[in-house]
Amino acid sequence: MRIAFLGLGKMGSAIARHLIGAGHELTVWNRSLDKTQTLKSAGANVGGTPSEAVAGAEIVFTMLMDDTSLVHVVYESGLLAAIAPGAIHVSLSTISVALSDRLTADHRARGQDFVAAPVFGRPNVAEDGKLWVVAAGADASIQPVRPLLQSFSRGVTVVSEKPSSAHALKLGGNFLITAMIASLSETLVYAEANGIEPALFLETINSALFQSPFYQAYSKIILNPPQPPGGTIGLGEKDMRLFREAAHNAGVKTPLGDAFAAHLENAIEAGMRDEDWAAGYYRLAKAKTLEQQ
């Protein structure tokens, strides 16, 4: 298939490589041109602008950081007008429910299709082709897109025909990740205060209670922060803000989400925006405990 891929951060680059490996004709674009060179060497074409990249594409993937980045590319850089009628825009990013609804309506008005397909997993999981994709959109659009999603994932959940439902699910999932990080951080501070070795505490709790690869992986991240970070405090704050906005618009209160958001905002104020989401959350929780002693 003729595919355009816009946004070559750590996640986007990994996903794009899987699409090339699956034999598709790929044209890539990124704001920083240097990030396109590895994919060019692997056989991808490079578009000088978003509009050039999507010319003639049947499927357009975007993997951009946030609402602001996606709005800039789609609306201010002319992507919406450049996508061909009948083509499908697949948003892999974690974006707001409100923007997802806007994109759905605006693509429909131009005879284009929109599929939401945010992914669960860090960059190392994307490299291994083991992301989990949450997809939503019209069945006629999901069908041609699904084999592409499967080329870089270990599973695909189709939520409904309303694209924003996939973004709502992803935000709910990221809330649960933050809840796990927060609870691990607080109990680690508690364990250390009682003279318990953090690694022993985490190993025992996971073996006795959760038996979860996810808890195991995040326990390692908290104690041994990866460099560079797989997910940052800044991304965590963005996702928590979007979760609370979507909940508010649906008439749902989020007392836990409010507390997590305040902690993440404090971390950013402390200069930790680019630190690892999990390790940074724990470091701030530990620092606050020491301040209170």
UniProtKB/TrEMBL annotation:
Transmembrane feature ranges: none
GO molecular function: NAD binding; NADP binding; oxidoreductase activity
Pfam families according to UniProt: NAD_binding_11, NAD_binding_2
Domain 3-hydroxyisobutyrate dehydrogenase-like NAD-binding: 165-279
Highest taxon of the lineage: Bacteria
SUPFAM superfamilies: 6-phosphogluconate dehydrogenase C-terminal domain-like, NAD(P)-binding Rossmann-fold domains
Keywords for the protein's UniProt record, in alphabetical order: NAD, Oxidoreductase
Residue stretches making up the 6-phosphogluconate dehydrogenase NADP-binding domain: 2-158
Signal peptide (residue range): none
Keyword tRNA processing: no
Residues forming the catalytic site: 170
Family matches, as InterPro entries: 6-PGluconate_DH-like_C_sf (IPR008927), 6PGD_dom2 (IPR013328), 6PGDH_NADP-bd (IPR006115), HIBADH-like_NADP-bd (IPR029154), HIBADH-related (IPR015815), HIBADH-related_NP60_sf (IPR051265), NAD(P)-bd_dom_sf (IPR036291)
Full protein name: 3-hydroxyisobutyrate dehydrogenase-like beta-hydroxyacid dehydrogenase
